[in-house]
Amino acid sequence: MINNIQELKERLFTSGVVNNEQELQGCTPEEIAYIESNYGVLPRTYREILGLLGHNAGKLVRGSEFEFYFDQLIKMNEWQQEIIIESIAEGEKCTRLPEKAFCICALHGDPWFIIANGQDDCSVYFLHDDGITIKESSKSVMDWIEALVEEVEYLIKRGLR
């Protein structure tokens, strides 16, 4: 079980997700401040994750598989708000993301998000492709990142990464 950012870093290296320090590139404090100035104060655990791997984390995310890294997060959050507003304007039934929602990852445009209200840690939610259903994906950001690491470890063991 990953309990803190140091354990996450150790796990990335021992599992082969990251092979060297150059593969691990975090966000700068200024980049994290930019997110917080636009979306709200991020949970401490997610700020630490961004600081560790906000730009690159070896084999954790490949190509366009997920929107996960800083530049993708900024575009994805802008796009999520626009698409919801457009859908509502066109009369489509969809769910607005909660106030202070910040999308931390997306798979094929379907976002996982947290609520940016400065807590220590928080649940991670998923907006399903129906555009209506929001479900809790993980009880904490650390649980969410650990599940992602476990999935990649599985792929590495099978030679798929």
Description:
42% of the residues lie in helices and 16% in strands. With 161 residues, the chain is an alpha+beta fold. It has helices spanning 5-14, 29-39, 44-53, 70-89, 141-157; strands at residues 24-25, 56-57, 101-107, 110-115, 124-127, 134-138. It has 5 helices and 6 strands, in the order αβααβαββββα.
Structure summarized in a few sentences:
The protein has 161 residues and is α+β, with helices and mostly antiparallel strands.
Summary keywords:
161 residues, two-stranded antiparallel sheet, globular, 42% helix, four-stranded antiparallel sheet, 6 strands, alpha+beta
Provide the fold topology.
Layout: H1 5-14, E1 24-25, H2 29-39, H3 44-53, E2 56-57, H4 70-89, E3 101-107, E4 110-115, E5 124-127, E6 134-138, H5 141-157
Major β-sheet strand ordering:
3-4-5-6
Terminal residue distance: 22 Å
State the shape: globular
β content, as a range? 15-25%
Q: What structural class do helix, strand and pairing data support?
A: alpha+beta
Question: Residue-averaged pLDDT, rounded?
Answer: 91
